[in-house]
Specification:
The protein is an alpha+beta fold. Among the domains are: 178 residues, 3-Layer(bba) Sandwich (FAD/NAD(P)-binding domain); 94 residues, 2-Layer Sandwich (D-Amino Acid Oxidase, Chain A, domain 2). Helix content is 31%, strand content 28%. It contains ten helices and 18 strands. Strands 1, 4, 5, 6, 7, 12, 13, 14, 15 and 16 form a ten-stranded mixed sheet that branches. A hairpin with a 2-residue loop joins β17 and β18. The longest helix is centred in the first third of the chain and has 25 residues. The chain starts with 8 loop residues before the first helix and ends in a 19-residue tail after the last helix. The chain binds flavin-adenine dinucleotide. Flavin-adenine dinucleotide binds next to α1, α2, β3, α3 and β12.
Length: 411
Amino acid sequence: MLDPETTRHADLRSGAGPWRARTHRPPGRPLERDMGWDVAIVGGGITGAFLAEHMTALGLDTVVIDREREGFGSTAASTAMLQWEIDLPLRKLATLYGFASAAEIYRQSFSAVEGLRRLVAELALPCGFAPRRTIYLAADEAGPRELRDEMELRHRAGLPGDFVEHAALLGAFGFDREAAIVSPGSAEADPLSLCHALLALAAQRGARIIRDEAIGFGGTGRGAAVTLAGGAVVEAGHLVLATGYVMPGFVHNDLHRTASSWAIATVPQPPQALWPERALIWEASERYCYCRTTPEGRIIFGGEDEEDDDPDRREALASAKTKVLTARLQALVPAARLELDHAWSGAFGQTEDGLPLIGRVQGQPRMLAAYGYGGNGITFSFLASRMIGALLRGQEESWFRHFAIDRPLPG
Ligand SMILES: Cc1cc2nc3c(=O)[nH]c(=O)nc-3n(C[C@H](O)[C@H](O)[C@H](O)COP(=O)(O)OP(=O)(O)OC[C@H]3O[C@@H](n4cnc5c(N)ncnc54)[C@H](O)[C@@H]3O)c2cc1C
């Protein structure tokens, strides 16, 4: 059996974000049988939840295993900006993989947010989903020239959006930056409610949710098996690993690393303190920040990422990071009330090329996995559920190779 090497929720997050479980979490049920599942999903965060909904929609007999409270890993820490724009700008991705591949990847990401929107609408999932434009602000090394080049490439790739110069940006949104790219097609949601609503639906369709820790994974003659800390062995036709930011050691890619991010949420703001359309805001810089509002009018502001997932160091940095984020928020939105209701941090998986690792696990024909989503975590979680659903039905598309777990390091 392979060793999972994972960590605990308390290590994933510190402080608490603004999300409260609004949908009832589906009840966990004891394991009455340990044979005959079509799919066993390990991890009940947003990735496991999208998978569980999709697998049950495909009519597959599904079991979800989570060792703690589903949704309270990275998912509850997420600021849940559901963007199609990837951490790595198109122009940089094109340098790594060529324009045609980079454009295809961006278009898949765009379609994923659209697919997510359709799913939430069709299933009427109560999760504060709202379509939003994004404002990608010039900052540091990415000035007007770089953003103009980026916009031209995006148009060549068939993607929407406009390059906006300083005066127009200031006039339309009140942001005093040299330039920005304003794009339609993104959205926001409450990640915890979305996760729980998806799991509740999967449970209604017959999925079993088990609260136990997976401590070993292995292949069987006709499928895969997970050994649980409680002693049971769950056998399934396929096993899907969605355990969040720490990848089990046997799922490996040198592109993967873990990072921490810090966030604050203000008290609800008077409407005049908020910018038009409540667009999602993010910065084109290495030390980028990101910003959105909640339905109650809070401003959520995050960033200051570090390539470190140590919970003690994160905790030690919390107060300094909160101060920096508050100052950066004030500089961006001078009219905002700066009293904070929440300050928190969390770890997440990312990759050097900004693309997730989704697909078959090397050397394990019945195991699939989804990791390393970066800032587009939830968009890529949705994409992962669709890709894995297709792989289980034997429908492999040529673009899946861009996200393959065993893809080589670029260059
Ligand atoms: C501060 C912050 C802000 C972010 N902002 C955004 C954003 O704006 N937009 C965006 O798209 N993404 C954002 N992300 C990233 C996003 O939150 C993550 O990509 C996403 O939540 C990952 O979901 P997951 O289900 O893969 O992992 P998790 O939510 O961590 O779920 C994994 C689950 O697996 C379970 N598990 C682990 N090991 C085992 C085991 N051995 N046995 C059983 N169960 C196990 C855990 O208990 C956990 O519940 C942000 C992340 C952070 C920290």
